[in-house]
C-alpha cells in the first residue's frame, strides 16, 4: 500500500487526507496543535459559513487574480459539492437570504466530529502535537512529545495554513523551510481584517453597535456588508471585504444611504426641522440610527448646515483611521506559496511528490463562504493529484 503524509489539520489538510484515503492510500496526518480543526471551530462560533450559493462566474470572481489558476479546482468542488459533502456527513445545510450556506446546527463542532469519524473509518492516522521541522534527506522531521520523529512517505500534502491566528496553529513558520528548498513565496499580508480607529470618548457608548445598510468603498473594492463599532475600531464583513483596498493604500469612505440619490437626500434635509436638533432631523428625515449619527459626527464635526453639502457628505463620508489591525488578528492572509511555483495539480515544481493546499497558497477571497470553500477545493484537488502522482 502506498503511503501519504498530510501536514496540517485544517479543512484543506483533512480534505486531502479524505480523498487519498478513499483512493486506498495509507494516510498519516500530523498536526502541531493538540487537536485538529482549531481555526475551523473558531470560524463556526459565529455560524459556520461553508460556501456561497450563487452562479459560478461571480463566485469565481471573488478570488480575483487567482481566479484563472483556481478555476478548475473550484469547478471540481464548487458550492453545491460542498453542500452535498456536508449533508453526506449527516449535517443538514440551509441557505440564508444573502446566499450564504450554513450547517443547520450553525456551528462547526458536529461537522468536525462526523468528519473525523469518517477519517478514522478510512484508516487515517492522526498525530497531534507533531511540529514539522523540515527534511532530513527524504524524510520529514517532527518534534513530538516523544522526541524527534521522522516519516518517509510516497507522497506529501502540505496544508499548514497562512500566518494569522497563531494561537490556533496558522503561524507561517513553514515559510523558511520552503524558501530553503527554492520554493517561491510572496510576503504575507493581512486579509479580511478589522480597522484601527482612535475614537474620541463620546463613541464609547456605541461600542458593540452595528452599522447596517451602508456601502463601504476603498479604491476598487466595495461592500454592502455591515460593520460593528468596537473599542479598537471597526470590525465585520463590510470592513473585511474592503480591507484589501486599505492595505493597498486607498482611503475608506462610507455611503450611509446607498439606496438614495444625493438629490433625494438633500430634498429630505431641506424640509423644515423646527425645534429639532440636527441629529434629530437626520434621524427623522433619513432614519439614521444613533450609531450612524455618532460616526458621522465623529468623522466630520462640525457638520455642514447646508442641505446639499450635508447630503454629499452622507453619501461619501471619509473614515479616518489608524490602519489595519495586526496580521495575527486577521481572519486570513494574502501571500504564501506563489501559484507559479506549483504545477496544475498543486505539486511544488521544485519538490516532486510534495503538494500544497489551502491558505498556504497565495490567494485571497472575502469572507462569506469563499474562504472555506477555497480551502476544501484546493485540498480536494491536491489530494486527487497526489493519488495520480503516486499511481504513476
Structure notes:
This protein has 392 residues and is an alpha+beta fold. 33% of the residues lie in helices and 21% in strands. It contains 14 helices and 21 strands. It has helices at residues 11-22, 38-43, 56-61, 67-76, 79-88, 109-121, 175-179, 237-240, 243-247, 262-269, 278-286, 290-300, 307-315, 370-391; strands spanning 3-7, 26-31, 51-52, 93-95, 100-103, 125-128, 131-136, 139-144, 147-151, 155-158, 185-191, 195-196, 210-211, 215-218, 221-223, 227-229, 233-235, 253-255, 317-318, 332-337, 354-356. It has a five-stranded parallel beta sheet with strand order 6-2-1-10-21, covered by helices on one side. It has a four-stranded antiparallel beta sheet with strand order 12-17-16-13. A four-stranded antiparallel beta sheet has the order 15-14-18-19. A hairpin with a 2-residue loop joins strand 8 and strand 9. Helix 1 packs parallel to helix 6, helix 1 packs parallel to helix 14 (370-391) and helix 10 (262-269) crosses helix 13 (307-315). The two termini are 14 Å apart. 45% of the residues are buried. The model has no long low-confidence stretch (mean pLDDT 96).
Amino acid at each position: 500500500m502506498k503511503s501519504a503524509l498530510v501536514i496540517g489539520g485544517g479543512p484543506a489538510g483533512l480534505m486531502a487526507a479524505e480523498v487519498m484515503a478513499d483512493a486506498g492510500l495509507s494516510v498519516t496526518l500530523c498536526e502541531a496543535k493538540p487537536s485538529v480543526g482549531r481555526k475551523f471551530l473558531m470560524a463556526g462560533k459565529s455560524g459556520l459559513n461553508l460556501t456561497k450559493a450563487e452562479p459560478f462566474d461571480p463566485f469565481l470572481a471573488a478570488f480575483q487574480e487567482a481566479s484563472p489558476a483556481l478555476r478548475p479546482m473550484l469547478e471540481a468542488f464548487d458550492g453545491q459539492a460542498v453542500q452535498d459533502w456536508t449533508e453526506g456527513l449527516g449535517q443538514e445545510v440551509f441557505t440564508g437570504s444573502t446566499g450564504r450556506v450554513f450547517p443547520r446546527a450553525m456551528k462547526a463542532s458536529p461537522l468536525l466530529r462526523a468528519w473525523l469519524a469518517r477519517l478514522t473509518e478510512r484508516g487515517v492516522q492522526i498525530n497531534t502535537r507533531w511540529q514539522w521541522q523540515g527534511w532530513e534527506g527524504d524524510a520529514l522531521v517532527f518534534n513530538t512529545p516523544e522526541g524527534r520523529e521522522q516519516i518517509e512517505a510516497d507522497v506529501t500534502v502540505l496544508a499548514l495554513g497562512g500566518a494569522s491566528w497563531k494561537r490556533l496553529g496558522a503561524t507561517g513558520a513553514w515559510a523558511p523551510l520552503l524558501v530553503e528548498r527554492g520554493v517561491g513565496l510572496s510576503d504575507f499580508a493581512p486579509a479580511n481584517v478589522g480597522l484601527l480607529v482612535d475614537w474620541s470618548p463620546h463613541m464609547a457608548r456605541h461600542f458593540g453597535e452595528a452599522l447596517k445598510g451602508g456601502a463601504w468603498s476603498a479604491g476598487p473594492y466595495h461592500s454592502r456588508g455591515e460593520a460593528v463599532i468596537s473599542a479598537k475600531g471597526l470590525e465585520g464583513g463590510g470592513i473585511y471585504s474592503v480591507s484589501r483596498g486599505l492595505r493597498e493604500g486607498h482611503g475608506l469612505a462610507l455611503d450611509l444611504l446607498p439606496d438614495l440619490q444625493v438629490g433625494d437626500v438633500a430634498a429630505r434635509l431641506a424640509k423644515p426641522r423646527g425645534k429639532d436638533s440636527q441629529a434629530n432631523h437626520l434621524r427623522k428625515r433619513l432614519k439614521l440610527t444613533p450609531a450612524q449619527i455618532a460616526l458621522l459626527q465623529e468623522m466630520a464635526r462640525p457638520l455642514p448646515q447646508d442641505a446639499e453639502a450635508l447630503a454629499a457628505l452622507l453619501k461619501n463620508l471619509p473614515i479616518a483611521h489608524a490602519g489595519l489591525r495586526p496580521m495575527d488578528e486577521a481572519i486570513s492572509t494574502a501571500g504564501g506559496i506563489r501559484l507559479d511555483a506549483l504545477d496544475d495539480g498543486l505539486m511544488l515544481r521544485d519538490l516532486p511528490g510534495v503538494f500544497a493546499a489551502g491558505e498556504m497558497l497565495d490567494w485571497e477571497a472575502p469572507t462569506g463562504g469563499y474562504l472555506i470553500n477555497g480551502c476544501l477545493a484546493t485540498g480536494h484537488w491536491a489530494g486527487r493529484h497526489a493519488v495520480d502522482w503516486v499511481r504513476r
